[in-house]
Amino acid sequence: MVKALNLDQTLEPVLKTSPAAKNRFIYSRNKLHMLPSSIGSALTHPLIAPKIPRAGLDLIKSASGQSDESIESFITRRFGKGMSDDLISAMVHGIYAGDASKLSVRSTFGMLYHLEKDYGSVVLGMLMGGGTVETPWDTVLKEKIVAKMPDLKDFVDKTSIYSFKDGLEELSRALERDLVASGRVDIRKASIVEKLDFDQQGRTVNVSIKGQDPLQVDSVVSALPPQVLYSLLPNSYPELIQNPSVTVAVVNLVYNGDQARLPSPGFGYLIPRSENSAVNHKGLLGIVFDSCSIPDQDQGASRDHTLKLTAMIGGHMFEQIVGNHDGVDANPESSSIKEQELLFEQIAVDAVKKHLKIEAIPDIVKVHIHNQCIPQYLVGHLQRMQTLDQSLRADYDGLLAVTGAGYLGVSVNDCIKNAREVAEAVVSKMGEEEENGEAQLVGKQDAVTGLERSWFL
Ligand SMILES: Cc1cc2nc3c(=O)[nH]c(=O)nc-3n(C[C@H](O)[C@H](O)[C@H](O)COP(=O)(O)OP(=O)(O)OC[C@H]3O[C@@H](n4cnc5c(N)ncnc54)[C@H](O)[C@@H]3O)c2cc1C
Fold first, then answer.
1. DSSP for residue 25
2. Could you read off the pLDDT of 244-292 as tens digits, one per residue?
3. More exposed terminus of the chain, fewer Cβ within 10 Å: N or C?
4. What is the spatial distance between Cα 195 and Cα 228, in angstroms, rounded to a whole number?
5. Are 34 and 24 within 8 A, CB to CB?
6. Span of 51-65, 221-235, 424-438 with lowest mean pLDDT
7. Checking DSSP bridges between strand 220-222 and strand 400-402, what pairing results, if any?
8. How many CB atoms are closer than 10 A to CB 382?
9. Which of 189, 312, 344, 410 to mutate to test the pocket of ligand 1 (most atoms within 8 A of CB)?
10. What CATH number is given for 36-127 in this structure?
11. Nearest to 364 by CA among 310, 413, 328, 303
């Protein structure tokens, strides 16, 4: 997509060899610990070495045969509670802002689940090169892309993360420009969908939009959060409302001048749940060292004298921090929002002082509270997605498909890949219909739901 949108020039890859990619930290027991970059360094690592004897049992313990369990339960069973509490819970904070004791291992760290299932041991499976979770669509897509862009594999292998000169938003802006320029796409912003009505006989969908004339369309691909879709549909699917979503406060801090220096260059640090993070760290999930991790986003003379940090706070601990159980008030003018923003600013500034020993006052502070922004795949999620796949196929026969973070992966890459897959499938069905000159070609077996891959994960 980056190539197709001519964004190569503005792409900011972070190579796996750079300090930002190699130096990742965990804050635990009052200090930052750099994560080991090799097996050798893991053997002497203060957080990891004491856990190795217990973790070694993974090589001989038999598989549990369970179809799913929490991340904490899986890691504790195979590697010991310490590994789950001190290390994995921090990663879960970093990716899902979630609680490792609640999230499904199969839906979040599917590779671990498959290594145990296929090899009986995670470590053995890794040593034998297993664990790749690749669906038939992934294989086809990879072959197609690599044939078109042979350099891409090398680029991907070398790259740890990526952004763009003006941030990730460049991607959605460029996509919008490209679609509008094609003249074939009508984008309606700030339009709230209120209802979806399906006419199975006429093979049409009526989309009610707040304050606008309704739209009649041939099929719908919903990229809305699942709980929103639930409220728009005539049929009630419990699978759409099983997972809660968490709220995350994002605090951006900018320090100008040489007063503020990082103790060590790197990507940033995460805090494990075992630190009693809701109480001891006021729900801080972690801090990203932006100016270090993607330095080329900043230009000009001040570049080397500016420190930019992003603190993420809340997630599964959000309600505990703000002291209510209703999430945030939707009105940005409300005093409770302002109070909450001040609270999160204070938590971030205090953490920077305590953890990074930076006493300077930030020159710029921005706080954004992202309400219900990361879906939490609870245990059994994948099986529920399989049930939903069957229901959508049976009930809508291709008139409704779903995609987005609520279903089969929360990362930007997952969202793009899954959206591409469902879009290609829908377009290919439409092509078949046009070719055959028939209005109703989408047979039940072939109906696109966007959840087909759930059977292969
Ligand atoms: C703080 C934070 C940091 C993250 N960091 C990373 C990262 O470093 N790397 C990574 O890969 N991923 C990251 N993620 C995850 C990733 O950004 C998201 O999972 C992904 O962008 C979700 O995309 P989406 O399109 O599915 O959902 P959304 O972007 O939430 O889109 C859903 C859209 O539906 C709209 N909507 C809701 N109701 C209606 C309605 N009735 N009618 C019309 N529209 C409606 C909403 O306005 C919204 O625009 C992060 C997420 C957060 C919150």
1. E
2. 999 999 999 999 988 899 999 999 999 999 999 999 999 999 999 999 9
3. N
4. 10
5. yes
6. 424-438
7. parallel
8. 20
9. 410
10. 1.10.3110.10
11. 310
